[in-house]
Amino acid sequence: MDKINLSDKLDLFNETWTPKIISELNGQQVKLAKLHGEFVWHNHADEDELFYIIKGTLIIEFRDKVVELSAGEMIVVPAGVDHKPIAHQEVHVMLVEPAAIKHTGNVKHELTKEKLDWI
Amino acid sequence: MDKINLSDKLDLFNETWTPKIISELNGQQVKLAKLHGEFVWHNHADEDELFYIIKGTLIIEFRDKVVELSAGEMIVVPAGVDHKPIAHQEVHVMLVEPAAIKHTGNVKHELTKEKLDWI
Predict the structure, then answer these.
(1) Whole domain around residue B80: which residue ranges?
(2) How many distinct structural domains can be found in chain B?
(3) In chain B, which residues have their Cβ closer than 8 Å to the Cβ of A28?
């Protein structure tokens, strides 16, 4: 049970679209990710997903609207809702989502990671 | 499904030790709280609790150690672990914990709120 410094953890990796697990609670995992470019359209059938923006501006396209999130802002994408994250410049995010989730959700894609690492 | 600006939400209240609910996902709630002074020793028998520091320095006393958390740092206090938060100056935190949790855990105290508000 130690404290976690998000900035220190973010210094440990440079890969984009590859969330790293930093903690867990009540069956949820807390992850950090660096995002740059366009992700794929996907949804998570059974899992809500929290995005909290640490640095940069994240655009999330939904089928019916576009949301632009800046540092200090968050959104919860409900289970089953199609979304496509876009980061025109590098974005650092904290995610909270169930341990079992796949980050590309219902889509199998070259960006899909079968197993995420703890840092 | 709208974005949430933590700073805007924090401007909506001034009470200390009274978490306000801002979102929920997968049976967990996300809350904001302003802390100032000393809280009571307590634990949550069945719930892990995440503290993420937005502003200020939060001290959490445990039975066997003391952890000091600054802005950008977080800790998960596991279920059943006694803890006592102390804020010598005002601290703003984001909490993630199960919807059913009582913030004073196993302790009934004048600080205990029976029902938390959404903001």
Answers:
(1) 6-98
(2) 1
(3) 25-26, 28, 96
